[in-house]
Amino acid sequence: MENYENLKQLTEQLKKDNEQLKNKLEKEESMTKDLKSIILKDSVVKEEAAKLIESLEQVVKKQKKQIEELQRVDSVSRFSESSSETRKSYCCFK
Fold first, then answer.
1. Cα–Cα distance between 24 and 75 in angstroms, integer?
2. What are the angstrom distances between the C-alpha of 60 and each of 49, 54, 55, 63?
3. Which parts of the chain are coiled coil (predicted)?
4. 31, 83, 85, 94 — which has fewest CB within 10 A?
5. pTM for the complete prediction?
6. CA 91 to CA 27: how far, in whole Å?
């Protein structure tokens, strides 16, 4: 009879231990799932960031070209104005 009681107590203890381990495993699985989700979101965010950076680089290149073109036009127009002023003063000087 004593052995039966011991066996019964051990069985109950094993059931409790098993339940605790099961709960712990479920928590770990949930955390693993959450981490995978975070990693996937992080990867997507990194991909989107890379696309945005690439797009911004293209915009910067276009703006640099526009600035260079405006500088060329500006220097040509200044040269024209300067030449025109020189001609005017030359004409008036005669």
1. 75
2. 16, 10, 9, 5
3. 1-73
4. 94
5. 0.52
6. 94
